Amino acid sequence: MTEFRELARAAAEAMAARPEVPLALATLVQVDGSSYRQPGARLLVDAEGRVLAGAISGGCLEGDVAARAADVCATGRGVRLTYDLRADLEAIWGFGAACDGIAHLLLEPLPDPSWLADVEAIRTRRQNGAVLTVLDGQGGGSSCAVLDGDAASGAWRPIGHQVHGISGPELLACTRAAQRTGYPMLHDVRDDAALLFIDPLVVPVALHVIGAGRGADAFVQIARALEWEVTVIDHRPAMLADLALPDGVAAHVARYDDAESLNRLLESLPHDDRTAIALLSHMFDVDSAWLTALLPLPVAYIGVLGSRKRAGQLLEAVNATLGERGLSVTDRMRHRLHAPIGLDLGGESPASIALSAIAEIEAVIHGRPAGFLRERLSPIHARTPTPRVFEHEAPIVPTECDTGRDDGHDRG
Known about the structure:
Number of domains: 2
Strand order of the largest sheet: 13-12-11-14-15-16
Helix content: 25-40%
């Protein structure tokens, strides 16, 4: 969902450089079969055929969509486009992409792109949200409202068109479902020819790196390349000062032996199901104190540097400390703990360890087994049942985010 940030920035730059050239926005709303991009992908173009930001395919559709922008901007009305990627793309557009699906898009004029920045601001506040697009019965449509907050309690903000003919309960149910799964949803409106496309605003992954020693910089660099929100925490101010942090990375000094201040810091930072923590201090007392504070939190992932034996000793120490408070380490806590940290990629350098850990976090966040794609027997893209793998692989337990939809068998 970082695409909204790119779209908003590109729209602002285009309007500053060429204010007389109208803009248009393409949204991928449905895919039948396989496609390089999935529903919710967007493309910003202008009336002079420029591709400004975003992507809706592997490169085979962008030029044709941009060429249609002038007509859409002139009429002021959105149009729906269908591309059958099963055809010979070499003959049609000069690309031999050999995808195996049908892409359905909405191309609409964008006279006021300010709502793109509003969407990004809502997303980064980590309080849920969604974008509502109505596809009318005449082959057109428009992005018409942005939800700020949770489906049940958030407020809909009209973008340019009021939301007409949509019952509150129906819209609420659809939006709640989209927010729960994290996947866009296309819904037929009963007794109407319209379709609702509801795109939930999935918040960015927040990574808290605890320990500013050797290897922390690699964690930060890779995570920032993924546009994650990154925080580095250490009890040693000098270590933090020596760490070269990219723009946008927060740094905090926190005493691990002061439980009250430690808990206050954690409360001020993201600690939800899109949050991951990497414990890199490699100091037993430090890791034990942090684990005691972290394990009860509803985060998605906690990884600890070190051996399996050391991880067992840490759990024993944490369990003893929690026991003094009438608590204990639960199965749910153990499930979110990954120690030793990372996937088995084979590398031993700090950068390789960081890569394996962040790859593991990515797999956990998406509920994936992190195996070889060539051995996967079900579709690659996220909106599918939990993948089956070859018999020599361990079985995968389905996650609550599975939707049972089959959207394609390759990247296109």
